[in-house]
């Protein structure tokens, strides 16, 4: 990640998401703005957590590597989101690996400053409670969705998310097909099965596969197939 020396941009994000109300001034004095590119690690599973991150632009994947080495993408996050909140509360190492899925901007807050100045700050504790509760609700909804919907529906839901811009615009593509392994990890199937599903969507005119990339041709049909987007 790269440090961004732009106080105006930092202030823009603070105002955009109403961040100021949740932190005492002593903590805000330690705010730093970072940029990460696609694939950059924001934090790694098992590492000591030194900062709480506020995702203020872009999207990121949250993944977990099991003891057998299999990678599972747990969720797909977009601004505004906290990373490191559970680790801060429980004072543990990182539970997951978080990687940038687009160009992202994050506000980094040293954990030490939170312990010193915000441990008893009511509005900060309220923010933590809201974020942790929301994560629990999303996880429960995603688990239920995975149990009751097939891989094709989960794939459509995933495509809806990754092909939607930060401002809500529906993108047509292209999405590199080299990411089929990531898609497979995310929806809980194999790369071979993902390729079969993509071929099915292409035959139905929902997507177009050309020169190693995927483009969306029919958003309406994709939304009907997905029912809802759960990967957030």
TrEMBL record:
Query: Which keywords fit this entry according to its UniProt record?
Result: Activator, DNA-binding, Transcription, Transcription regulation
| Entries under SMART domains matching the protein | HTH_CRP
Could you tell me which residue ranges the Cyclic nucleotide-binding domain spans? 34-104
Q: Which InterPro entries match?
A: cNMP-bd_dom, cNMP-bd_dom_sf, Env_Response_Regulators, HTH_CRP, RmlC-like_jellyroll, WH_DNA-bd_sf
Report if keyword DNA-binding is assigned: yes
Task: Output the superkingdom of the source species.
Answer: Bacteria
Give the PANTHER family listed for this entry: CRP FAMILY TRANSCRIPTIONAL REGULATORY PROTEIN, REGULATORY PROTEIN YEIL
UniProt name for this protein: Crp/Fnr family transcriptional regulator
What organism does this protein naturally occur in?
Terribacillus saccharophilus
